[in-house]
Amino acid sequence: MPPCLFSEVRSLAALIGSLAAFSVHRLFSCVAGVVATTDEAEAFQGVNFAVLIGGWPRKEGMERKDLIAKNVAIYRSQASALQQHAAPNCKALYN
Q1: CB neighbours of residue 80 within 10 Å
Q2: Which tens digit of pLDDT belongs to each residue from 43-52?
Q3: What predicted TM-score, i.e. pTM, was given to this entire model?
Q4: Which residues make Cβ contacts (< 8 Å) with residue 2, sequence separation at least 6?
Q5: In whole angstroms, what is the distance from residue 49 CA to residue 44 CA?
Q6: E strands, 1-95, where?
Q7: Domains of the chain
Q8: In terms of Cα–Cα distance, which of 79, 82, 80, 92 is closest to 46?
């Protein structure tokens, strides 16, 4: 199964996919492909290794606890999708 790239920004998903595919194929010849999607089920279907980067950007006036609360919600959703759709032996790396 090819690795997947997940993007919360729907309008940029296609652009991110194109850039990721170009970068990954240039840098890592052993990678079979890249999927850019905003659907967690599609993104994590059958993956063996997931690298989850990003999160909610800190905005002016936000306290650290506000930022952590936003990011916990994002990663909780992704962890649930990984549990439901990834390969049983999937390894995940979180930023």
Answers
A1: 12
A2: 899 988 888 8
A3: 0.61
A4: 31, 32, 33, 34, 35
A5: 9
A6: 4-6, 35-37, 49-52, 91-94
A7: 4-94 (3.40.50.720)
A8: 82
